[in-house]
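dumping this here before i forget
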Amino acid sequence: MHTSQMLAGPAVVFLSLTWSTYQSLAVPQIGECGLSCSQGFDCKSRVSRNIFNSFCRQPPTSMSPSVLEALKLTTAMKCAPHEGCSLVLRVQASLILHDSLRGLEACSMNLDTQETQCQNVRVSRASRRRQVGRQLQVHFDCFEVSVAQSLYVTLRTVPHFCGVQLDQQYHVEVEKFSYWVDRSRKVILVQVPEAPGAPDYYVRLCLKWFTCEDVGAPVRVTVNRMSRTVSLPYSQELPCLCLEGWSATPDAVRMQACPFEDETEALWDAIRYHPGDQALSWEPACPVSGHVSLCWRPGPGALCHSLEHSGRPAHGRVQYLLVDAQPQLCLKFSTSRGFRVRCPFQERGFQAWKMTVQPAASQGHLRVTFFSPSAAHFQVHLCHQRKSWAPACRPVLGATALPSASGDFMADPAVAFVNIPRDEACVPNTCIQGWRTDVLFSAPQQLCDLQCTATQGTAD
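structure:
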């Protein structure tokens, strides 16, 4: 077989839990066995053992006894469609290529049965000539093993030179249960291996707060159960959604793993708005530490400026009362899980108020008019733009309410106005900001750098 790259398995999350460490161990998954060599080396592999390589010969005087540099052993899970999964031993080796070497041989012996598996890798003659003196790294991953096996692994050169060998003993950890995630079906598949004389086993999903709170009832895997695989459905990929397993014995140790612990996006989307009392709330499904505040964005991609008196600790449910449902109003999260901004009113069809600026009837003034689908009070600020900071603003006047002729705000949406001096509003780098004042938290709308020769603008 010719190869120059590692073979990759399907994108499936797979982990194992062990009694020996009482924590989750990440076990890589592969789709099929394979061999890889360092880039630039042309390698071929054979699974059969060359009996003649058991006998050693004296190495050349030019060969260092440390030509074999390293031997590393790990466990992986080989899963193929319709064939299930099996454990394999992965052997990683490195050596400095000498002109007398043709390759490497790795052998794994089961210390209980003396059964031996060997794999042999050869480097082509042309590749050996080009790469003499360079480091060769080889990865084997086709040694089939079982849980709780004790192995003795040897690494030799081809041909085998006396005294040039690496040895290592390896124990395949006792696996209590394994699981993998099927994201398309939103289920976690748990496999409890059979063990003679072992008690029944419980598995469950839970949300990890101070304790792990049940998400559905625990499933009992009995000794005589035909299938040792359990399917546990989930609704959201939350960082605190964990899998827990324990033996059905008194005071059994519970082992736990959380497959989505690095996936936090669902936390920031847990925002609710209650139009009746204009309350905006955020309640994360998992423990979070940090701070939350309201902020406003002048435009897409702009810096979100925090609103005064809106900072809250993010230890649980956060609620803001009397919040104006404006597209520019956002929630800013600064927590141990990261920094995020969410603007809940941008894509939900909320009817927001608007502001326009036009020449006023009185000479030398501009009229700022506010349109709203409901009764509201407003104030106008004049602001001076700055490059790195929020605009420096000062309030001018409160807006004068306009009576609705029909009493229907949808039919007569203009609710208030204010006239401001043209010579103040038309200064370069000046913005007109409109704020709603009958709520506790509101984001402004603003118009900047007005063309005052023919002034007419609308803030969205």
